[in-house]
Amino acid sequence: MIETVEKYLKNRGVYALDLEVYHFNKGAQAFYINQGFGPIKTYMHKDL
Question: Which end of the chain lies in a sparser environment, N or C, as judged by fewer CB atoms within 10 Å?
Answer without folding.
Answer: C
